[in-house]
Amino acid sequence: MLNAALTALLLTTAPPLVTAEGVTLEEDGRKPWSAPFIGVQLDVGVPDGIGASLVVTPGRFFRVSVGGLSNGVGAGVRLGLTLVAFPSSIFRPLLGVDGGYVFGGEAAWLPDLIEDEAVRAAISGVNLGFANAQVGFELGSKNVAFTLRAGIAYIDAGFAPQRFSTGGASTVTSSGIGIKGFIPSARLGFVFLFG
Length: 195
Fold this sequence. Notes:
The protein is mainly beta. The protein has one domain (36-194): Porin, CATH 2.40.160. The protein contains 3 helices and 10 strands, in the order αβββββααβββββ. The chain has helices at 2-13, 110-113, 117-124, and strands spanning 38-46, 49-59, 62-70, 75-84, 91-102, 126-140, 144-159, 162-165, 171-174, 177-194. The strands form 2 sheets. It has an 8-stranded antiparallel β-barrel with strand order 1-2-3-4-5-6-7-10. Strands 8-9 form a two-stranded antiparallel ribbon.
C-alpha cells in the first residue's frame, strides 16, 4: 500500500515530458520554449573593430555566428559560439568564444588623414588574427537585445615588410614584424532575432 501511494504521489507531482508515443507535452500549462532561429548582430569592440554577423540559434542554450569585420583600414571575418543562460528571461548572462582575422588594406580615407607615405604604408600593412573568450550579458526581449561583453583576447598581429627612405638615395627595408600576446577585449552591440 505504501508503494502504491508513493508511486501515485510521484506520478502526480512530476509532469510527464514525453508520452509513450514520443510527443512532447506542455509543462504546467505553459507553451514549450521557443526562440527565434535566425538573426543579425551589430557590434563594436576591441580587437574586433566594427562587426555585423548572421546569428543562428540551433539549440536552447547556444548560438552560432558568422560575419564580417572592419577596423577602418582592412576588412575581415569572424566565427563564434555563444552560450546563453536563462534564454527566456529579459536578462541573459552570456559566455562566448570566437575567432577572426582582419586583412591589411588601405581605406579610401587614409591618404587624406595621413600624409606621410611611410606611416600610411605601415598602418595599412597590418594583418590581425585573434581569439576571444568573453563573459557578459544580454538585456532585452527575445527579438531585440543590447549586449555587453568583456574578457581576454589572444592576438597575432603582423606588419608587412616596409621600405623607408632616410632622405637622399638611401632606404631602410624591414622584413616585417610580428606581435603576439594577450590583451583585454570588450564588445558592445545589439542583436536582432527574427521569428
